[in-house]
Amino acid sequence: MELPKKFFRKYNFRPLKYLGQNFLIDKNVLQKIIQAADLKKDDIVLEIGPGLGILTKELAEKAGKVIAVEKDKRMIEILKENIGDVENVRVVKNDILKTNHLPLITNHYKVVANIPYYITSPIIRMFLESKNPPKQIVLLIQKEVAQRICAQPPKMNLLAVSVQFYAEPKIINYVSQKSFWPRPKVDSAIIKISQICTNLPQISRIRFFKTVKAGFSAPRKQLINNLSKGLKKNKAEIKKILLDCGFNLKARPGDLSVEDWVELVTKIK
């Protein structure tokens, strides 16, 4: 694998820290991402932040079409040089969070990307809540965030509930900070999010997330107090609902699974 330094020296500029530009230089990690994506020749892949195109070229070999959305205009020239005349790659210069390219993808598609850490939550939320969600998401993200997303009771958190409401997340592999240039300060993880919107609870999303956010308003405090305060309901009423659900009155928000939250919301009037 050619080192990113070569291309940056040629074009006389450096990675932008504020854009979270850390480029993958480990071929073994690259192959693990490709394997996790389980690509077929009829797959359409949306890649976010292709950078130098190292992952892009591998995606193009396995998938039918790759749409690579790059925010940094400086990277476009390097990207196009690096991938060469690959016919099934379309490069789009734009910020994925500030534009709506999803309608361009009319068929089922997959998202595969090494994304900047700072946009992890907004990116995942955008795709999971989309009217045209991908059938699968494979991302290289910060290790700690991946662990939070995949958490289970009693360590559930707002991010975990928000993702697991829509899909099934799974950590595929952990990745050392040594696998990147420039080297980030933390390790990463490959996360796979599948079964997206295939088994959504039959419940109002607005009511569900209003209740969950109230519950996690003070994660270390007891759920009965958070819900009473956040939903402006009498504590006795919340107590009865918790007992009806079979929950411990001393339970904290992290003790509840997504299924528990769904049951709770259905009983709150």
Automatic annotation (TrEMBL):
InterPro entries: KsgA/Erm (IPR001737), rRNA_Ade_diMease-like_C (IPR023165), rRNA_Ade_Mease_Trfase_CS (IPR020596), rRNA_Ade_methylase_Trfase_N (IPR020598), rRNA_adenine_dimethylase (IPR011530), SAM-dependent_MTases_sf (IPR029063)
Domain named Ribosomal RNA adenine methylase transferase N-terminal: residues: 29-197
Pfam families in alphabetical order: RrnaAD
Entry's localization field: Cytoplasm
Lineage: superkingdom: Bacteria
MF-aspect GO terms: 16S rRNA (adenine(1518)-N(6)/adenine(1519)-N(6))-dimethyltransferase activity; RNA binding
Residues that bind S-adenosyl-L-methionine: N22, L24, G49, E70, D95, N114
CDD domains: AdoMet_MTases (cd02440)
Catalytic activity: adenosine(1518)/adenosine(1519) in 16S rRNA + 4 S-adenosyl-L-methionine = N(6)-dimethyladenosine(1518)/N(6)-dimethyladenosine(1519) in 16S rRNA + 4 S-adenosyl-L-homocysteine + 4 H(+)
GO cellular component: cytosol
Keyword field: Cytoplasm, Methyltransferase, RNA-binding, rRNA processing, S-adenosyl-L-methionine, Transferase
Function: Specifically dimethylates two adjacent adenosines (A1518 and A1519) in the loop of a conserved hairpin near the 3'-end of 16S rRNA in the 30S particle. May play a critical role in biogenesis of 30S subunits.
Protein name: Ribosomal RNA small subunit methyltransferase A
Organism expressing this protein natively: Candidatus Portnoybacteria bacterium RIFCSPHIGHO2_01_FULL_40_12b
